[in-house]
């Protein structure tokens, strides 16, 4: 576990990415994944940091009015594989529904801005870890440049196609490997492809392939990159 900080009472879940193109995850293969739910339906993903805390995207805790949710307005489901089986009461793995005590967005995060897009969720009750419920690894030592061209796993229940008319929201937890980009190259690519005002900050991470075909979820944040924590820690130093 070199270069990964132990932030929980047990070793974090660390796997080498082997999938490019996307596939269904096996049950309990990604035990740090959490489904965030509101009004009875899945809308975002989160990851387990330790027994008391989850990490998610800042925009996952923003309401339609661009205000931070109250902790009581959202819930989490841990150990989830199939959303439909869980909602229909037919899930064999018995996912755990959790409530939150506090939502803490990055102090410089704004719902209308993509910078510092991270939030912490404090649980009302601490988790008990099992084979299907474990924390994610948190990278703290290596600078982001050392991750360039490595593969990061993205997982979640998001859209299966960038075109919503051709795709659908995944029911089974999905995973895909994407290549981490140099931020300068990423910014240039955005500008070349018709987005001249795009700026990639040092609290952000780019990942994907020039040829496309493998990416994180579009529209929502039902997905998480396993190696994304390093950039979020950079943001926690109040970078802007």
From TrEMBL:
Keyword tags: Disulfide bond
GO terms for biological process, alphabetical: proteolysis
Annotated TM spans: none
Organism (species): Ceratitis capitata
Protein name in UniProt: (Mediterranean fruit fly) hypothetical protein
UniProt domain Peptidase S1: residue ranges: 19-240
Claim: 4Fe-4S is one of the keywords in the record: no
SMART domains, per the entry: Tryp_SPc (SM00020)
